[in-house]
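Hi L.,

As promised, histidine kinase:
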Amino acid sequence: MNRRLLWKLCATLALGTLALVWVITFLGAETEQQMSFIAERHQQTLKAWGRTAERLHDAGDEQALASWLNELQQRENTWAAVVRSDLQPLAGSVLTQRLRDGFRIGRSEEWKIHLYFEENPIMETTFADGHTHFLVLLPQRMRPGTYLPEVKLFLKIALPLAVLIALSLVIYRHLMSPLRKLELATRAFSEGNLGVRVRALLGNRNDELTALAETFDSMAERTGQLILSQRHLIADLSHELRTPLTRIDMAVSCVEEGIETQHLLPRIRRECRLMRELVEDALTLAWLENEKPSLDQDSLDLTDLLDSLLEDARYEYPGHRLHTELPHQAEIADSSQRALAQAIENVIRNACTHTPEGGNVWIALNPEPGGFRLTVEDEGPGVAPEHLERIFTPFFRAAGGSDKPGGHGLGLALARRQVEAVGGRIVAENRVSGGLRMTLRFPACRADRGTDREKSAGT
């Protein structure tokens, strides 16, 4: 089964989730990195304090330096001091120049601040002599990372929510676009637009939804054909019923006027029989076309069936010469005796009807690989080549047919549906010497039926 849509959704969700995790991780680390440094303006303020302290210290005015430090501590609510460092190596240790140049008591203004420490760090500015240092506890207002909790909340909740909403919208549009087209097509079909189709509207897309569209198109195609077939059948049936109804209506008018009606009763009876047969055949044809049943419940002998049908044909057409070539036995299984009897009877009657009085009709049943072939040939006028298929459509009558009354154009149409329902085929062709040849092929055993039996046995 095609699972392209499943893999599309899995890939989209998997890649989207991976991308979301990477983006959150990257932005979280990058944001925390950027927020761990003191703002540039505060760095300049700290450096300016250091220069002021160095200037007051170099001037030798300790009173002014002390006053300034006291005022700074009160104004910034912090601690500040100027101290001297005197490194004394012990136990013969040697101080390297690198240590002397890089030695610090506090933190430089450019250094990264650890945001997770609760206490603020002590910042340092080293004087030009390298031994005197201005120290200040970083004021709270200069501490970086003030909005870090809000940023984390955004990265952990707002950003994933926005990404998931965008991902859901993409998936929703991908799913709903063909479904909406299918909905519109279904509504249009229900409103009578039988030609609406969906698959062509989906372009090159190929997944489960296109399979659904193809299934809809197949359903619409079959349903549309059935509806049109039913409309044509009803229209043709109503047309065929008008003639016998008109004749019966005329007979009733004669009765009402007091005209002798004894000679009309056989005519009325015949018209009633014709209408009954017409309605029954039309209903059977509609059932075969709509339901397309598989008639495979009987086993029968075609030779015995043909013997019975030919006996009736000889009685009904005593002036015809029926030539037969039948095997001693022709057993077939998984078929329908009733359907085959009616189909073969219609074909033989059609041949006899179109054969002139005293003409010949040939019926031959021969075995062939996988089944049997029945041929019925007549000496009638034949059928125009362009009408060889149309004679199997309901209510079609070929020009040049018999003048005998009673036919209503459903016999061959019904015969083809019945033969196909048992797994067979029927075709028509003109004979070289004149007349029509009907060829019916019947399988000895339905292949699909045998497969079902094997499955049942295996189960």
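Strands lie at 80-84, 122-126, 132-137, 298-301, 321-325, 331-335, 360-368, 371-377, 425-430, 436-443.

Thanks again for sending the construct details.

K.
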